[in-house]
Amino acid sequence: MEIDTKIIDPYLMDPYMTDEDIIATFTPLEHQFYKWQILDSDETIRLGEDFVENNDIFYNCLQKKFPLPNIKHAFWDFIVKWDLRFNRRRRIVITAKDIHKRLRTTDCKDTKSLGETSLWMHTEALPDLLFGQSSFGGSLMHYALSTGPQYLFPDTPYGKMIEPSDPYILKDTVLAIDFDVNDCRPSALDSSECRGEDSIANEASATSVRGANSDDFLNKEPFVFFQIGALCCCTADEWMRRYTEYADEVYDPEFQHTGYGVVVRLDDNGYPTGAVYIVYKYQEEAMPAVSEDPNKPAFWKEREWRDSEGNELPHIRRLYPGCDQKFFLAKIADNLADLKEDGHFNIQVISEDRKTVVQAKRVGDTGMIIPNEIVAKVQPEDQAQSLLSALGKNCL
Questions:
Q1: Other beta carbons less than 10 A from residue 230's beta carbon
Q2: Which of 73, 333, 340, 378 has its CA 20 to 30 A from that of 180?
Q3: Rounded to an integer, what is the distance from CA 306 to the centroid of its chain?
Q4: Where are the domains positioned within the chain?
């Protein structure tokens, strides 16, 4: 088999080409490279590590896999054409309207649609969006969105999730809030850090965590949302510097993270076209320790939000230092397009108390998206067993 003449120069490819467009340009040999990457991903990942450590090892394995002349150059052209497609797309100038359009057309019920948008937000050079100003909390502040696919994480550790391997659980870009419980989960009954020892027994005797189903939402709408990034703010004085001392220059005000994530609520059809909310971030990304059970990775952990005596730190659930009101969840707009650079928006507090953030899932083929788990009331006949279970865990 001879190496095919290239149909298109990989170094001159249009950054607007979709994945399907690029695949359509593959030569027969490039199709083999592509199948090798997809079907033998474990081998290609290992070889990729060898490529970083020692190019000769990688190319020797490549030559054995594809015993053809000039295979090294052919494979490198494939890398430029396919693996570096995201680098090309970063040349594209993405606007706020592009982000709005992408969200409007993302069907979170459809795995492919949700996956493509999540990947798009991970890999594209998305602009930060200016949201305007608000006087909430006693001071006039200017706000902006640091755009990204994941800022918030579920409160339930991976190892304690209900059916974490359920194929209908959605990507972490989509999460939900359980309004039936405050602060810590009853699933953390083995931790006395969440509440006092006495209250653990009382909580256990009244509630339990279980997988949610569509019947749980016959009389209420599930609060499910799509993440779009982190909320940042700067003072009015900092904002005005662009018009005063830096009037003749391009000046970007210094925005600070507020600790809140920005989310768009899903509509009844599973599209993120609803109202815009901000949710306080209690969990942060964490790589699993080497000694941990690989079947129960801890991809996130609770951030420090209490002092040594268990009291909430003064900056927690506050938009900025000196903010005179604390909250967990608030609505900031009816839709994303309402938030504009020169506008003024109101912050409507929905919940001052912390609520539980959980994974979301699709209910079979019905298309309904609900929380993966909920806190449910325990029936009287089950309370004694729940109490014994809770006390037993704390006595071990």
A1: 23
A2: 333
A3: 24
A4: 10-89, 96-395
Instruction: Extract the residue ranges of the chain whose pLDDT is less than 70.
Output: 1-7, 39-56, 180-207, 246-251, 287-299, 377-396
Tell me which long-range contacts 338-345 makes (C-beta under 8 A, separation of at least 24): 338/276, 339/129, 339/131, 339/132, 339/145, 339/276, 340/130, 340/131, 340/132, 341/130, 341/131, 341/132, 342/132, 343/131, 343/132, 343/133, 344/132, 344/133, 344/134, 345/131, 345/132, 345/133, 345/134, 345/143
Model pLDDT for residues 47-102, shown as the tens digit of each residue: 554 444 456 677 778 888 888 888 888 888 888 898 888 878 777 778 999 999 99
User: What is the pTM (predicted TM-score) of this model?
Assistant: 0.70
Q: Strands, E, within 43-85: which ranges?
A: none
pLDDT, tens digit (0-9, with 9 covering 90-100), for 316-339 = 999 999 999 999 999 999 999 999
Q: Which residues are within 8 A (CB) of 33 and not within 5 positions of it... i.e. 6 or more apart?
A: 66, 75, 78, 82
**Burial label, 48 (beta-carbon count in 10 A; 0-12, 13-18, 19+):** middle
